[in-house]
Design goal:
By secondary structure, the protein is α+β, with helices and mostly antiparallel strands. The protein is 26% helix and 19% strand. Bound molecules: zinc ion (ZN).
């Protein structure tokens, strides 16, 4: 891989990481359930849905078919997610 290719790949990775971070921030104040990927920290918000999971806003977690449910960030599946809520005091997601 050339240096230019390496830099491009790095930029792509950074951008996708920022996207996940941006989604997670948007999820904090949303109503409805949220589910956190224990592998990478991605949070699915039922209120927001996620275009990468083909889930429109308001799509319930249990209504996403198992075969379509891959973490948009790391590719792990439902068994690696658990329900969370945002804790303002801890400034972090905590398990429900
Ligand atoms: Zn993940």
């Amino acid at each position: 891989m050339s240096e230019a290719e390496e830099i491009r790949k790095l930029i792509t990775l950074l951008e996708s990481e920022n996207l996940i971070e941006a989604k997670n921030m948007a999820a904090i104040n949303q109503p409805g359930k949220k589910f956190l990927c224990r592998i990478c920290g991605y949070v699915y918000s039922e209120a927001l849905g996620d275009v990468m999971l083909d889930a429109l806003p308001g799509t319930r977690w249990e209504d996403i078919p198992d075969e379509l449910l891959y973490c948009p960030d790391c590719g792990h599946q439902r068994e690696d997610f658990y329900e969370v809520t945002w804790s303002p005091s801890e400034k972090n997601w905590v398990r429900v």
